[in-house]
Batch of 3 targets.
Target 1
Amino acid sequence: MTRKALREQLLSEQDTAYQAFQYRLIPNAGHLIGVRMPKLRAIAADLIKEDWRSWLEGEKEDAWYEEIMLGALVIAQASMPLAERLQRLRAFVPRIQNWAVCDCLCSTLRICEREVLWDFLQPDLHSTEEFSARFGAVMLLENFITQEDLARTLSALAHIPARGYHARMGVAWAYSVCGVKFPQQTLAFLETAQLDDWTHNKALQKMLESRRLPQALRQTVRMHKRRGHCMKP
């Protein structure tokens, strides 16, 4: 599919009410048409049936939000050797400029070679760039919150240096999932981890917002809040 044909298709699927909603929800969305995700996933599936490599390599710097999202979906889902997928992912990560593209990519991508994936994520887990770091944190959330991986995941999250809001929110979100699945180990780690107060308390807040957190543990979680910093009950 040519770039012109794709843009015409995206414009034909525009939902202006959804566009207005997305502009409020997604900072740094850039040029946003307002195409709902089920339609984008269907378009991505069609692209994958065609010469998707030429389409990916023909993308321009002025890509629309939906085109960048389609790039994430194609890289995550098209059939290709692992080495190629990792190479394309590494080139794509700097293009992530909002949480929606980041989180969609992370939730769609499936790489079974776990140690290869862990090694691949190290530049992101040590990045000072906001969305590279969020990508690393959310990929840990999606792939490495297991009993086997818990210790290294908790430690890796604590050492992410990026200070941008969406990076810290990604870290807090990942810690909250650790906390819901493994509350005792996670709370014990948070007591000694040198996290900034905002990320620490935000992780606890998001744990409390989860319906999966047992009622019996909620007061214990509240007791770990650092004083002087707001946290919802």
Target 2
Amino acid sequence: MIIQAVNGKHPQIPTDCFIAQNATIVGEVIMGSECSVWFNTVIRGDVHFIKMGDRVNVQDGAVVHATYQKSPTTIGNNVSIGHNAIVHGCTIRDNVLIGMGSIVMDDCVIESNSIIAAGAVVTKNTHVESGSIYAGVPAKKVKDISQELIDGEIGRIAANYVEYSSWFKG
């Protein structure tokens, strides 16, 4: 794994987090408890800060970055960022699922209890209202989310990744 300071700013990673051996975390990255950063993931806090809440999982091949001196990335609690997703210079609130291969661009706000579908492209400045499912290119609201999906998908996946990470901590 590469965990590296940039311009005097060091990643802050609690000891209860799992970082895969080939993940890269650099610069001003502040992680909450029980987070997991999976294989081939890159989290670059070199141009602006990245702040993650508790129980965030950043799955294989995902990239989390920001925009130089303009747009940091802030991620809430119980957030799952799917395989090969890109999260860039945006705000993601609590209990959100960012689907596999999706892209969330600068200055977007993804409110709590929302799902960004796999492959969706959330364009710059989009505001995803709480309790929504967004899909497509460009991403648009396709429906309101049910409590069943909030509990059964968003909550389940976040909890599962806390469990999966325990397998690697041995």
Target 3
Amino acid sequence: MNVVSRIIDRGLWADGRLASLAVVVRDRPGYLNEVTGVVAIAGANVLHIEHTRAFGDISVGKVGIEMRIETRGRDHVAKIVHELRELGHTVDELK
């Protein structure tokens, strides 16, 4: 079962049905809600989220958000990334 699960996950990643995004936002109340709201409004699903403020190369006053999302495909991921960038957030798709 584990091997089958990994095969399915790899297929979903390759198809863009699963994606991992790294988003940097201001360290202020409401920004995590804004990011997850963009995902929800776009019709995608957050599968995992990690909110980090004290590690890595994140500037003071900024917060890193890594999230794994379930989408409808590559175009859907691109739309979500575009929406987040339009709000002024730094976004990278993780491979």
